[in-house]
Design brief:
mainly alpha, 3 helices, about 0% strand, TLC domain-containing protein 3A isoform X3, signal
């Protein structure tokens, strides 16, 4: 999980920097604001597509999204984890 977080922390700012640089080079007539706006929307679109894909994966892999749990977790272990965090 930490690796995924670190990857996202590097990927999305890198995508923003690369796309804003490429837009400045390919569209010299555009202002910096135009390039930054398009780069921001591109990164937001990529994040939305990835979030939608993750949601669809979860929905397709569970028979009941509300009550199904993954990795062997059941109600007892979930309640145990919740009670230990409160102490």
């Amino acid at each position: 999980m930490l690796l995924t977080l670190a990857s996202g922390a590097l990927f999305f700012p890198g995508l923003f920097a690369l796309s804003s640089w490429a837009l400045r080079r390919s569209r010299p007539g555009w202002t910096d604001d135009d390039c930054l706006t398009v780069a921001t929307r591109l990164v937001s679109s990529v994040q939305a597509v990835l979030a939608t894909g993750a949601g669809l994966t979860i929905i397709c892999s569970c028979s009941n999204v509300v009550s199904d749990r993954s990795s062997g977790e059941n109600l007892e272990t979930s309640l145990l984890a919740a009670s230990s965090q409160q102490n």
